[in-house]
Write a structure and sequence with these properties.
Blueprint: H1 8-16, E1 22-26, E2 29-32, H2 33-44, E3 66-71, H3 75-86, E4 90-93, H4 98-105, E5 109-114, E6 117-122, H5 126-130, E7 138-143, E8 153-157, H6 158-171, E9 179-181, H7 189-200, E10 204-206, H8 215-224, E11 228-231, H9 233-242, E12 254-257, H10 264-276, E13 280-285, E14 295-297, H11 299-302, E15 308-312, E16 317-321, E17 330-336, E18 343-345, E19 360-369, E20 374-380, E21 384-385, E22 392-393, H12 394-402, E23 409-412, E24 417-420, H13 426-437, E25 444-447, H14 462-472, H15 486-494, H16 512-526, H17 538-543, H18 552-565, E26 566-570, H19 571-587, H20 596-611, H21 618-647, H22 652-655, H23 659-662, H24 675-690, H25 694-702, H26 704-716, H27 735-749, H28 754-768, H29 775-790, E27 793-797, H30 798-809, H31 811-829, H32 831-868
Parallel strand pairs: 1-10, 3-4, 3-5, 4-7, 9-10, 11-12, 12-13, 24-25
Antiparallel strand pairs: 1-2, 5-6, 7-8, 8-18, 13-14, 14-15, 15-20, 16-17, 17-19, 19-20, 21-22, 23-24, 26-27
Helix pairs in contact: 2-3, 6-7, 15-16, 16-30, 19-20, 19-30, 19-31, 20-24, 20-27, 20-29, 21-24, 21-31, 24-27, 25-26, 26-27, 28-29, 31-32
């Protein structure tokens, strides 16, 4: 039964916009304002709940209640949010602390809204929730931005939300033609303000959970004609590393930044960059307590005052309140405006209160520049730190730890948190703080060796605490680093001690070989991984909840498969392990399954598209491509050199990886052993050079599927008779004749939509059928690639996953060594046992080589890091988190 009180802001949003204009877009789904209004009205009649569990709604929430809403950036989430407000209920938006919020506030119901659907859980003790009085003006509850897990909430009224949405719409000059994108979670005040302001303008919002460094995000920008993107400082750090041009789409009109202080020089860079793109860059300042925004910095002033937060938003005002001991020209920033919250809520009784304050002391120390009419923050009055833009109350955290440890001090800055806890376990303290504040343990430096530093008067010396954190360094060496860390996994597997919070698997030089081991270790650490984990930063992976990596039906499928089979494994791993087994079995005449190497070449194309193409920076992409080619070529060259020295098996052409063009005609000659590696290296280098051309890269980014298809068509021409080089048989082992397998794998990876997969499936069958004049080989490859087209991960018994992964990881070394190893093993053990022993020798060779090469890479990078390391300056101040 819906409540009588409908929030005016929701009514205004849904009834004043052009009904025919798009309001929300998600992938291929779109809702106009008329459709959104109808969907909200329908869901509001049942409290905004599509019930996936058996509950009696009519016997439940028949009066105004607090309802906890959680989920993903999706149309279903927005409908549920607006429906709850429309029905008169008070949404409590929760992020990662759902259980803590539920225990503290006992919501009448919990709504989980994701792209795949909506589910509801009514409170067990519904009577307690229903007896709680709510003030008539209370419209929305948001968690305070300090992520210590504190249940303290910000109470917002309909007037707060409406006034701030219209103020943002006004100074950003939003029109119905604008189209934003959910680059931030909707449960964050900043992300929610993007939705509010666009709906208030009759504009539209693209909803996605993709990270800004995910190619899917760039695709969404281009496909939907997005005009503006919002980000916190960490967003722009990711873009700097992975390719800032990701945002450069023709429709871009402006970019906004809030959620923390951005270095002035970085602000200047982005202002100039946006101008080159024909767009504007707005720096903004706000707090959850002010609904979202309090000030904005016009781009034309940002060039002169990049360190400023700007001028008050329309309808608001800022003033400086004198602070004892500070110069006359600075003071605490105090904000007034209709968007100032009703007040905090720490108990049920607070929910019945109206406005308890008329102004908001921000805790930030500011200065006013009269010539430009803008404010600048120069410090903080309270002890807060903002690592990754998340405001952490250091005093609250220190009190929490003080309940466990006899002596403890918490300090730090926007770069890291520092905990001094004499005699404690550094790993335990780090893990506890990480879980409490929702930030990666890599940002927490723990000193357990000495007493808490104090001043002469006996007070804690927090400056000395901060300096201890600098001495410890954010990223300890692998001996002292906690094992339960994403950074540890990347450092160990990739041999990179220089891992940073913004690093990704791809940016650190990860490829298909290291992908397997990394994914297995991360799944043990974090649970199920998102499919794009290799593109996500260390910080994102540290704070992500592995249990929510699968959405809706995918999650149900995964959970069901887990119960029946024990786990799932990436399809490319299964195909690689199967292919190498087939290659060795065929060469040893154990079984006859030809085509394994050609299948591996297609899988290599798939993986190069997955790991190389997402790198936006040209220099980084070229380095990654060359690194991939060298990681494949080096083992083959080493083994070939040994073969030449010991037994004279190979030639200079084989050593230089050009035998498939310069070698003897007979493919059975030992010099042809490594044709697959030759082709892989040739194609990897050529593709790397091709997409290093700016015009080609832009074209590939704009039409990735059609670009891959064009490459495939072009390469298919090279298998025609005119390109046989008078040697049809060996065409199957020469780069130009079989590079199309690589392009086919590339195309498979780019096949995201059902029609693309259908077309690619047809191409797999058409291009492979008859190519070898050997049906068994044709169908073996074709069927395997069809599986890769339609199935991205496959179920396996849990005990089998690790052996399969090891086998797939060692593919290269098994391929290299088996030619030389199996003849003597067959003579000594017989064919069956020799087959097993041959595989094991290849695995052992891989393990030994990886251990040595990682140690070498680690030594080189460590030496380079120590030689060039510059300790960053701590941030002077940062705006409160939104």
């Amino acid at each position: 039964m819906p409540c009588a009180r409908e929030q005016p802001f929701v009514r205004e949003l849904l009834r004043t916009a052009d009904p025919g204009r798009p309001a929300l877009l998600e992938s291929e789904r779109q809702l106009t304002y008329a459709q959104l209004a109808a969907a909200v009205e329908e869901r509001a009649t049942t409290l905004g709940l599509d019930v996936d569990v058996h509950v009696d709604i009519d016997a439940g929430l028949d009066r105004r209640q607090v309802v906890l809403l959680t989920g993903t950036n999706s149309i279903e989430y927005v409908i549920s949010y607006l429906a709850l407000m429309s029905a008169g209920h008070v949404p409590l938006l929760a992020g990662s602390h759902v259980e803590k919020m539920t225990a503290a506030w006992r919501p009448a119901a919990t709504v989980r809204a994701e792209a795949s659907g909506v589910a509801v859980d009514l409170a067990v003790d519904l009577g307690v929730a229903q007896s709680r009085p709510l003030h008539p003006e209370l419209a929305l509850l948001l968690s305070t931005s300090g992520s210590t897990g504190s249940p303290k909430l910000v109470r917002l009224s309909d007037r707060n939300v409406s006034s701030n949405a219209h103020a943002i719409r006004s100074y950003l000059e939003l029109t119905p033609d604008d189209r934003g994108i959910s680059s931030l979670p909707l449960h964050y005040c900043y992300g929610l303000s993007v939705l509010h302001s666009h709906l208030a303008a009759g504009a539209s919002v693209v909803l996605t959970d993709a990270s800004v460094v995910d190619p899917c995000f760039t695709d969404a920008l281009q496909a939907h004609g997005v005009t503006n993107v919002a980000g916190v400082p960490h967003t722009f750090e990711l873009l700097e590393r992975s390719g800032r041009d990701r945002l450069n789409v023709p429709t871009l009109r402006f970019i906004t930044q809030a959620g923390g202080r951005m270095a002035p020089e970085r602000v200047e860079q982005w202002v100039r960059r946006a101008e080159r793109w024909g767009a504007k860059f707005y720096v903004m300042y706000g707090q959850t307590e002010a609904t979202a925004r309090m000030a904005y910095l016009p781009p034309e002033i940002a060039r002169r005052r990049p360190s400023a937060i700007g001028r008050p938003i329309p309808g608001g005002c800022l003033e400086l309140r004198p602070v004892d001991g500070l110069p006359d020209d600075v003071g605490e920033l105090v904000y007034r405006g209709p968007n100032v919250m009703l007040g905090y809520a720490t108990t049920d009784a607070d929910l019945a209160l109206g406005a308890t304050l008329t102004e908001l002391p921000t805790g930030d120390i500011g200065r006013f520049h009269a010539d430009d009419g803008v404010f600048e923050i120069v410090g903080r009055r309270s002890r807060f730190a903002k690592p990754f833009g998340v405001r952490v109350d250091l005093d609250v955290l220190e009190r929490e730890l003080g309940r466990t440890y006899a002596e403890v001090a918490v300090g730090g800055d926007d770069e890291r948190l520092v905990v001094v806890a004499p005699g404690a376990s550094a790993a335990v303290v780090s893990r506890r703080v990480s879980e409490s504040i929702g930030l990666p343990g890599s940002l927490i430096a723990v000193d357990t060796t000495g007493p808490v530093p104090r001043t002469e008067r006996g007070k804690i010396d927090y400056e000395a605490v901060r300096r201890r954190g600098e001495a410890l360094c954010t990223w300890p060496d692998p001996v002292t680093r906690s094992e339960g860390s994403v950074a540890t996994v990347f450092a160990a597997v990739l041999g990179r001690p220089d891992v940073e919070p913004t690093s990704t698997f791809v940016s650190l030089g990860g490829d298909s070989l290291s992908y397997i081991e990394c994914s297995l270790r991360l799944e043990q650490l974090r649970g199920s991984l998102p499919s794009d984990w290799h593109l996500r930063s260390v910080a994102e992976l540290e704070v992500s909840d592995g249990a929510t990596s699968f959405r809706g039906a995918d999650r149900d499928r995964h959970d069901g498969a887990s119960r029946r089979f024990g786990g799932r494994i990436d399809t490319t791993l299964a195909l690689r392990s199967g292919a190498i087994c087939a290659v060795v079995a065929t060469h040893m005449h154990v079984l006859f399954f030809p085509g394994g190497a050609h299948l591996m070449l297609a899988v290599a194309g798939y993986n190069l598209s997955r790991f190389l193409l997402p790198i936006a920076g040209t220099a980084e992409r070229v380095r990654a491509g060359v690194r991939t080619a060298l990681r494949t070529a080096a083992p083959a060259v080493l083994w070939t050199a040994g073969g030449i020295l010991v037994a004279g098996w190979y030639s200079a052409g084989t050593l230089l990886l050009v035998n498939n063009y310069l070698g003897p005609a007979s493919h059975r000659n030992a010099r042809w052993h490594f044709w697959f590696i030759e082709v892989f290296v040739h194609v990897t280098v050529l593709v790397t050079l091709l997409i290093a051309i700016p015009a080609v890269r832009r074209l590939e980014r704009r039409i990735p599927y059609w670009f891959a298809l064009a490459i495939l068509v072009a390469l298919l021409v090279l298998r025609l008779e005119w390109a046989w080089l008078d040697d049809w048989y060996n065409l199957r082992y020469r780069t130009h004749g079989i590079a199309w397998f690589f392009a086919l794998g590339w195309l498979i990876h780019q096949s995201d939509r059902w029609w693309q997969r259908a077309l690619t499936s047809v191409l797999c069958l058409w291009t492979i059928s008859g190519f070898f004049n050997y049906p068994q080989r044709d169908w073996f490859i074709a069927i395997a690639l069809l599986v890769l087209v339609w199935v991205r991960d496959v179920p396996f018994p849990r005990l089998a996953i690790r052996p399969i992964a090891v086998l797939a990881t060692a593919t290269l070394w098994i391929f290299i060594t088996h030619f030389s190893v199996f003849p003597p093993l067959v003579r000594a053990l017989g064919r069956g046992w020799a087959y097993v022993a041959t595989i094991l020798v290849g695995i052992a060779a891989w393990a030994a080589y990886e251990r040595l090469s990682r140690a070498a890479r680690w030594a080189v990078v460590t030496r380079r890091s120590r030689r060039t390391a510059i300790r960053p300056e701590p941030a002077l101040a940062a705006a409160a988190y939104d």
